[in-house]
Amino acid sequence: MDAALVTAGLDAAALDAALARHAPPRVELPPFTLAEIETWFRGGELEGDAGEHLLVWAARMRGGLDVELAEGLAALKRGDRLAALGCHLDDYAREALDLGKRAAENLARLGAGLCERPLLREALRAGRVRLRAAETILPVAVGEAEAAWVERAVVETVRTLEAAVRAARARGDAPGDAFDGDDDEAWVELRTQLPPDERRVLDEALSLARELEPGSSRIEQLEALAQEYLAEHPGDPDADDSRPLGPGFRARGPEPTRRTATASLGPDGWAALPDVPPVPAPELSFDDGLTAQELDARLRALAECRAGWERIIGLCGYAVKRSGMHRLAGYGSFREYVEERLGLPARTVEQRVALEARLAASPALEEARRRGVSYEKLRVLARLQESDIRQWIPRALEATCVALRREVEGEREGQLRARGKLVASLPRGVGVLLAAAIASVRERHGPALSTGTCLAVIAFHFLATWGDAPGRSPTRSRRIRERDQGWCQVPGCSRHAAHAHHIDFRSHGGSDDPENLVGLCAFHHLRCIHGGFLSVLGRAPGELVWLLGGRIWAGPHRRGADTPGWAAPATC
Description:
Elements: H1 2-7, H2 12-19, H3 34-41, H4 46-77, H5 81-85, H6 89-97, H7 101-114, H8 118-126, H9 131-137, H10 146-155, H11 158-170, E1 187-193, H12 196-212, H13 218-232, E2 249-251, H14 292-323, H15 325-328, H16 334-342, H17 346-361, H18 363-370, H19 375-381, H20 386-398, H21 401-418, E3 421-427, H22 428-445, H23 451-466, H24 476-483, E4 499-502, E5 517-520, H25 522-529, E6 534-539, E7 543-548, E8 551-553
Antiparallel strand pairs: 1-2, 1-3, 4-5, 6-7, 7-8
């Protein structure tokens, strides 16, 4: 720990003092059993009140830490600090801080916005305004209007603030972009039989779509196939997003709770639950004089504190949601309870609660947690069958989250292919588009066609339309990127490869042979390698050694990093 703090530009005593108030209790809370939940939370027992109080306290602590993380992540985005760490922001946050992509991006955006909103920053850091309220008013709390919006955020509900912000934006009073906030688009899952012949047609069409739009995801490729078919064969003009998608589609997980989906009693109808005083954010400096390594060490220390509170939030939140205590307290939904009572973005809490429910039902997943598998990796392992989880634990402990996810998804995809099945998770908007294209195929060729056959028809149409498009000759760069399965080969990078980089530079006599070329995304190629922060030695594809700052590097890791070049994260 001390070595990490020296890297951070602080001694151990200084950082301990800064985070002492926010250190989570060092206790191991056992999961609540269903019988305990029923007795404590629904029976009006004191244990239920204590559990709810503990949840709110943990939320206040996490909110204060998130404010500091927001400013730290915003500082990390300035200059070449991310290049010096060899990571995109979301990859760094996921691997080093155990934060999901959207949570990290929202925090970084909030941190950047606070630099121009001193009143909101002061109120948020003091705990007078909670995190979710601050996110809501961020687009409109600018200039002379800032003070009034901050005072409203202190006393008004999130729902009231959202309505007021929408009205202000409609009047043109909000010069900034709307904050992405916590609204989730529903996701659907497409499941269908897909025989080998039809699979080959679909694979070829998806490959062509990827060639035409380098860096596109499979979701974007399926969307392109559907758009192309509907452009020539329009579907039902009266179709809308609320209509059933038809056979083959089903909701993936619980539908997100929309604010208008449940009746809210409002503040007058909420039970008078014990208040929990605000918790100020810790005082850590993230000024522009810090190096990337100093920022990294401070962010890791904050993330370690946050992880302890997250565990408490997950366990107590699971108990509150499972018991329905939030409804007994007058809240229309668990989402409303999280936003108004806890003051946190609902999405991250709901995801954490969902994982705790899975942990409670899975001894193998609980074993992975006890052995130190991070939260983001647990979410990957949670997709596996119970019988398969234990064999993946050693790999989860050593691999980056990106590598683990690709390997798990690759194995699952291979099993599905062997059984002649296709499973694709899609945002509902893309699902609606694909369902419309499938319906159009059935209108033209008969209602008895299977979903898999319809997909093959849509794919064949795309091939017939774009198969002779100019520029399809396989360039050297494209051959290298295809060899590397389309991904940037830097450890921990989640991006598609856009360039082929010469390992031994051509200016230094390097050849164009495939073993001297590696696929990279633009950030790692131009900013990291040609910026002088990152280098690579060896021969592609399987004998590469990466150097960050001149030291061997195997990607970012959250804790227990044996890889030189990364300080072990500080603990509270």
